[in-house]
């Protein structure tokens, strides 16, 4: 690797990680390790609970179990490398490793589509309750999840292919804990105009389309809820959507802050912290968001506890 812009091609990148907080290394490592382990355990627990309890074999929980699986994969593309780098003097990653780490974008785009599919599911449940089972058939649910995955991976494949066409000839220092796209582009000695246009188009296709589906679905949902005469009925209908709205707000809000907020100067540390939110914290919070106020999840958990108790005695 060379230091000049017009010299040898860069083969490795240096990730600064959280090196600006040297005195907090052990604390940050412990926090992120605990967060990662809780993310995997809570999401696996939710998947298992949905799988073993027949009362939860509905479209809503089918989507939720896939979201949990997606979150496990999502956080696992970033957290292990981040954790291992805490105690390394040279936090390096190869160019190929950098492009492979960018695999998390596939999962991020897939989650955009899946959250939109879940919004449509809530629309069907609240606005067309009598036709809900007919509309949200098992075949359609599987197709929506598969379509989300294929679409997300296709969009990311286009980005990754374009990224491989760029040249990097120095410097090679990334002020982040993973190979974040905006900073990779800043290090490229190629013309990135086409790549930026392509990324903007993909953002419009995935981001705005997903947000539009969510907003339209909730527009109809709100209109339907307002027509419900009883306060109890309105509260029950709203509670079925509150968790999803919270997850959507956290996911899209943190992404917008990172990728639409200026990336220069003092904002780099803020962007890094915001990246921690959507890469590590949100995957941990999602199972809690969907479980804490969910009566069906609580009932399923109580049934599971009773089953374990009777098996033991």
UniProtKB/TrEMBL annotation:
Taking the record's annotation, the residue ranges forming a coiled coil are none
- Provide the primary localization: membrane
CC annotations in GO: plasma membrane
- Cellular localization per UniProt: Cell membrane
For this protein, the parts annotated as crossing the membrane are 26-49, 61-79, 99-118, 130-158, 193-226, 238-261, 273-292
Domain G-protein coupled receptors family 1 profile as annotated: residue spans? 42-290
The reply to whether Cell membrane figures as a keyword in the UniProt entry is yes
Domain of life here? Eukaryota
**What one GO molecular function would you report for this record?**
olfactory receptor activity
What is its membrane topology?
Answer: Multi-pass membrane protein
What are the record keywords, sorted?
Answer: Cell membrane, G-protein coupled receptor, Membrane, Olfaction, Receptor, Sensory transduction, Transducer, Transmembrane, Transmembrane helix
* InterPro entries xrefs: GPCR_Rhodpsn, GPCR_Rhodpsn_7TM, Olfact_rcpt, Olfactory_GPCR
Asked whether the keyword Transferase is assigned, the reply is no
Against Pfam families, the record matches this protein to: 7tm_4
Family membership, please give it: Belongs to the G-protein coupled receptor 1 family.
What the protein does? Putative odorant or sperm cell receptor.
UniProt xrefs under PANTHER family = OLFACTORY RECEPTOR
Q: What is the recorded name of this protein?
A: Olfactory receptor
Q: List the source organism.
A: Enhydra lutris kenyoni
